[in-house]
Structure of Bifunctional glutamine synthetase adenylyltransferase/adenylyl-removing enzyme:
Amino acid sequence: MSEPWNSLPVPLADEISGCWSSVFPDGFPDWLKSAEGMTEGVVAGAFARSLFLRQTVERHPEQVRAMMVSRSLTEATTAGYLEQRWQEYLADVDSETSLHAALRQFRREAQFRIIWRDLMRWADLSETMLATSGFADTCIQGALDWLYDDACEQSGTPWGEHPVTGEDAPQKMVVLGMGKLGGRELNVSSDIDLIFAFPSGGETRDGRRSIDNQTFFIRLGQRLIQALDQITGDGFVFRVDMRLRPYGQSGALALSFAALEAYYQDQGRDWERYAMVKARVVAGDQEAGQVLMESLRPFVYRKYIDFSAFESLRSMKAMISREVRRKGLENNIKLGSGGIREIEFVVQAFQLIRGGRDRELQQRELLVILKELEELELLPSRVVIELREAYVFLRNLEHALQGMEDKQTQLLPDDDLSRDRVALIMGFDDWAGCEHALNRHREQVATHFSDIITTEDEEESGADALDEGWHELWLAEVEEEAATRWLSDHGYEAPSDSYKALCDLRENRTVQTMQTQGRKRLNQFMPMLLNALTTVDNPSETLSRVLQLVEAILRRTAYMVLLLENPGAGTQLVRLCSDSPWIARQLAETPLLLDELLNAESLYHPPAKEQLQDDLRQQMLRIPFEDLEEQMESLRHFKKAHILRVAASELKGTLPLMKVSDYLTWIAEVVLDHVVDVAYANLVSRHGYPGRADGETGEMDFAVIGYGKLGGIELGYSSDLDLVFVHKGDPELSTDGDKPIDNAVFYTRLGQRIVHILNTQTPSGQLYEVDMRLRPSGNSGLLVSTLQAFDKYQRNDAWTWEHQALSRARGVAGCPETLQSFERIRHDILCQPREREALRKEVVDMREKMRANLGTPANRQTETFHIKHDAGGIVDIEFMVQYLMLAWSSDHPELTQWSDNIRQMEELGRAGLIPVEDTERLREAFIALRSTIHRRALQNLNSQVEGGSFPEERTYIRAMWKKVMMDS
């Protein structure tokens, strides 16, 4: 008798023969022999296709046996069957812990059944997607039902206005499933995107203590997420992503129908319309949920043909391209060119543009919509057929990639054994055949995507229209003398240096070894660049700066294509590099920033904080919190891209000088907010939520305090972040996870994780350099303090200079309640009565020490002026303001409301502590000095200028110093 694996490809046959006896040490078991369709050859084929299936049989044979007894694997997996099996698991649930265990054991069974039938092709794509989505619905509803009843026992039943009858009635949660879950198209190892809602405000009744409805549903939502997402000894059920809810990670976990409707009506973004296309009530009060969905329909589908959507489509197309370039996703069948996302994008584009008028398009399933597009004659039959076939192929391939090890991935394998496995699943003799079919589908999708989304009037490359002289110059077809004369005639101020730089580039080893396609692109790009440089005042100097970028992209010539196909971007590149060597260096270090040059409107008008939050939210939506490496890379790109916009705007004059620091500070705040969320979610997944005295979980109780330039809203282009971490958790309590740790340890690790994310050098550099020396007791103190310990230290042990620093401190990220508590402590400390003469002496002594250590030596003060540290500089103004605040806040508590110098000076003037005319002159001097530092930073210059600079400002600041700090 032949071995059961003999019909498999040789590498897979060898693998199965090597593991067969360890899986079945006593031989092929009778319970498998007797199961319908289960021959040894079939089982060997399943094991060859999936390590997950093999390991489940090996580690949990009794559960697999029980599953086969309940229904043969040859029978379809229906929603009714899944519900029946869940009820059997639910019968043994008597606590939240046993609920978690039942859900995870149920998942193991369902995943085994769904993946087996899919990889063996006993189920088609439709069954697999419906079964996986139905399983998710069953788990969400099952967990929600149990947790809702338990929450009502503890806190009472929430009551409020019924959305249909308008009468006072008990309320239940509504759970919206987004994305593939909403469309019943979930893949076999997917996360789930959810939004929690409830009908209306009100309070609970008949519980131990009454709470408002929103608090009830937020707590219920937290417990539901834990039931599904938390990793235990049995694994997890689904990774739950709540970032699609209004305001993202910073928004309330559950909102009333009215709040949701108001948000989408007033603030809903285009990408949120896309998300809502597939939204579906997956659990909870179905009747109320349909009322909610009807109220949101006008947001998603306009009543008219919405041609305005084309602009957002172009933006989203650009975002897809940037994401692919940034992450190197060419081998990602979802996000790469010609992938699943492009098919989804094409279909959703028609839904948003025409769905308000053609109600047939107001459905969720992609394959259904494709058919409607054909019947409405919005797409030709050939295009629909090719997109449908590609979608089915790509989704089957996605399930193959994920089902092999029950892992969420869309990346093609790079090892031979995995490729053989995928080819076997997909029905090909070898990987080459599978890859050929894949490439054919992707090429067709990419073509249709480009035809439908790209506008006809996109600018064509102007390379062919260039004067032949630039081509001859770059290709070295003219002698050196003629070449330098050409450069000189076209405005190059150092033609010989420029000629030599071009020769050095041509002789660069990377250029010499470039492939034909790359060399062709370089030969098109360089003449265009040389011609474009003639439009600036310093073409030779600018060329030397831009060549840093050219060398950086020699192996990534797609960036040259980007500049060739977008002449406007090339113009911005030349202009910015001419104006700022700092920008030139940023572009060379991170060529992906070239994408920012495509839209001059956004380049020279950086977004305010709310738009920054929305931008980051969009960028990070598809990156799981646990993928820390990709989170860090994306955050670094986000920061660099937006700082480039600020720098470009400052150089062009579209951003007032006083606003530059505001924008740089907003960028840091938005980044910090997200970093805290990522670090917190990462730790919670391992250890659970920190314990609280009131028994509730889910609240962070942690805050980040910004000091120095961050606290004072005065960040520069390369400023570090002075941070202090505080929390108001009970250090005696522990977290509630399967691997509990003390709260104190949890918050310390949270602080360490935040510093790690900010400080670590990745391929994209460092996010921010973090300075923690201003925390209580400095470097010898705890990384994270309780608010009580922080308060005690500030009252009893802090030095005067630490109270000076506190005057520039403010909360920048974390728990709002903790931030408010910090502000109260700050206010109380700054308002303490102080002996003014002793305080004045301490501040003056500290200033003298700083000037001696950091200022210009006495013998060089006629040559150099240090804008910050020398007499008459910025620090003199800061110390005067800080002294007056500490001396007089006890009499004028309103002085403490601001942390930035400008508004503090204005408050001192209003309080009569400095004449108003003096505060205005100090303010003007302060702005002039700070603006100079900003401009010099963009020229890669330090804060030292010629000794005769700013004579009037320095004279006035020294006079004010003498008046405020020296005269009694």
Remarks:
- The chain has five domains: 50-300, 313-453, 463-598, 647-830, 836-966.
- The chain is about 60% helix and 5% strand.
